[in-house]
Each structure stands twice: as structure tokens, then as C-alpha cells.
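Thread amino acids onto this structure.
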């Protein structure tokens, strides 16, 4: 305890500190020796520290578009995987995302992609259809997860598994971020294929999202069989 914290009436004089202690106190600490605060573990790391091995991240792509299915992916990553660019996947080009998706598929312990159709979206609503696609993605994994991390505010119904919903989960969990990449790449490829069937809508460019170009095409040609008729602006 330092002298400033001792009671002057009861404390006894202490021996002078050793030379090494004086140097340690009086010498300024070089900036490079200061350690930054330890980062808190990701949800995936925390669950591994609790003894779990198989943690699935789940995310969807395609809630906002006016056309096409909603796609979900589930991924179980190993603890030692190396996926450069995963945290910044939304800033990657389409080609870079394709390469990252291939790396995820190669390194993952298990992965699966599933979807909910346009008919299911119109019948259930987009939220319930998204959760249905997530349920299918998790159920299709070749390894049963011990815990599921779900992007968003809601857990996935119909799964008899421990789950945690994480708002902006793709920025917090590597497993969710990996699922986000797989879902987006799969859906983008699907919309590219739908462009071959319905080239007048420009699906290859906007992937079904409500751009000015897409809305203009809807006014000119009306909705196609792959448009979500319950969405505002599709049938008006």
C-alpha cells in the first residue's frame, strides 16, 4: 500500500523501496508497453468456453425485395477457422463474396442453405416465411448444433434446441456472419437465374429489391409469377 493511503498516526516508517521499485515508479511507461483492454469474447467463443462444440449461426437474405424467395443459411464453424474479410462482408464485391462463400463451405464443420417460396411469403408474411427458411436451414445441417445463434430479434420456432437471438448478429458472431454470406450469395445466384426467365425486370442488377428501375418495370409489365403480390407496389 502506498504512503498516501496509510494512516499517519498508526503507520510505521517503512524501509525505502529497492532501486528497481523506484525505477518502476518514477520511470514513465513507454506507450508501446501499454496493453489495450481485452476484447470481450464473441457469442460463439463464450459458448465454447462453456463447453459447447457445435454452435450454429443462422441468417437470412431477401426480406426486403419485391420478388423471389427468402433464403436462409446455417453454419457451424470450427474454432480455428480463418476467414479474412468475414467481418466486412457487406463491403465486399460480389466476386469477393463468392470466394469467401467457397472458403466458408470448405472450412465449416457443417452448412446448409434453405428457402421459403414466394407463395409461402404471401401466405404467411415475410417474417414468418423468413423464420421458416431458418428452421429448414438448421434442420438440414449434417451435425446437430448444441446451440443456435439467430440474427435478429426472434428465435426460430419449431426447433428443440437452445437459441439466442442477436440484433445485428452478423457483426457479433462469426457463425452468423458466415451464414449471412452463404445466404446472400445463394440468393444472388438464384435471382441471376430468374433474370434469364424474366429479363424485362432487371433481376440481375437489383436482385428483386424495390429500385426505381424495378418499379418502372412493374408499371410497364405487371408482376411476374415470382413477384410477392402481398408487397406494396407490386400489384398497384
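Threaded sequence (236 positions):
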Amino acid at each position: 500500500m502506498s504512503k498516501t493511503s496509510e494512516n499517519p498516526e498508526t503507520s510505521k516508517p517503512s524501509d525505502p523501496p529497492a532501486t528497481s521499485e523506484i525505477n518502476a515508479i518514477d520511470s514513465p511507461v513507454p506507450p508501446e508497453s501499454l496493453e489495450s483492454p481485452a476484447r470481450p469474447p464473441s457469442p460463439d467463443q463464450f459458448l465454447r468456453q462453456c463447453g459447447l462444440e457445435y454452435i450454429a449461426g443462422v441468417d437470412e437474405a431477401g426480406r426486403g425485395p419485391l420478388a423471389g424467395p427468402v433464403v436462409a443459411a446455417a453454419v457451424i464453424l470450427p474454432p480455428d477457422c480463418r476467414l479474412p474479410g468475414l467481418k466486412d462482408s457487406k463491403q465486399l464485391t460480389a466476386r469477393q463474396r463468392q470466394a469467401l462463400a467457397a472458403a466458408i463451405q470448405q472450412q465449416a464443420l457443417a452448412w446448409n442453405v434453405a428457402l421459403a417460396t414466394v407463395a409461402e411469403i404471401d401466405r404467411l408474411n415475410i417474417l414468418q416465411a423468413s423464420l421458416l427458411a431458418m428452421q429448414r436451414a438448421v434442420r438440414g445441417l449434417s451435425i446437430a448444433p448444441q446451440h443456435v445463434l439467430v440474427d435478429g430479434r426472434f428465435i426460430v420456432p419449431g426447433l428443440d434446441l437452445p437459441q439466442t437471438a442477436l440484433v445485428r448478429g452478423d457483426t457479433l458472431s462469426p457463425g452468423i456472419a458466415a451464414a449471412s454470406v452463404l445466404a446472400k450469395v445463394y440468393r444472388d445466384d438464384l435471382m441471376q437465374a430468374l433474370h434469364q426467365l424474366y429479363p424485362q425486370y432487371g433481376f440481375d442488377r437489383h436482385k428483386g429489391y424495390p429500385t426505381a428501375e424495378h418499379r418502372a418495370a412493374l408499371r410497364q409489365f405487371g408482376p411476374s409469377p415470382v413477384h410477392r403480390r402481398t408487397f406494396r407496389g407490386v400489384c398497384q
